[in-house]
Amino acid sequence: MSKGLSLWFAFSSIILLAVTAIMISYSGWLASLLFVLSIANIGWGFVIRAKKERQEGRAASTSESAS
Q: Between residues 46 and 58, which one has the greater pLDDT?
């Protein structure tokens, strides 16, 4: 995964978790929704990273077999 994309997922996850912490004081339901959204965002980042690594692995194995 590129550094920019990694930074985006890190920054967006921190912001979502911070807003979740603030919302605990105001609305439990909204805090719960934001918590689920935060976990989904973190999970999506892991999925994107795994797909990128899998694509890079296939490209490397294809170039090795062509040599």
A: 46
SS3 content of the chain, % helix, strand, coil (to 5): 90, 0, 10
Separation between Cα atoms, residue 28 and residue 5, nearest integer Å: 31
CA-only gyration radius of the chain, Å = 17
Tell me: pLDDT of 67 over 70: no
In sequence order, the 6+-apart residues with CB closer than 8 A to the CB of 13 are 38, 41, 42, 45
pTM, to two decimals: 0.79
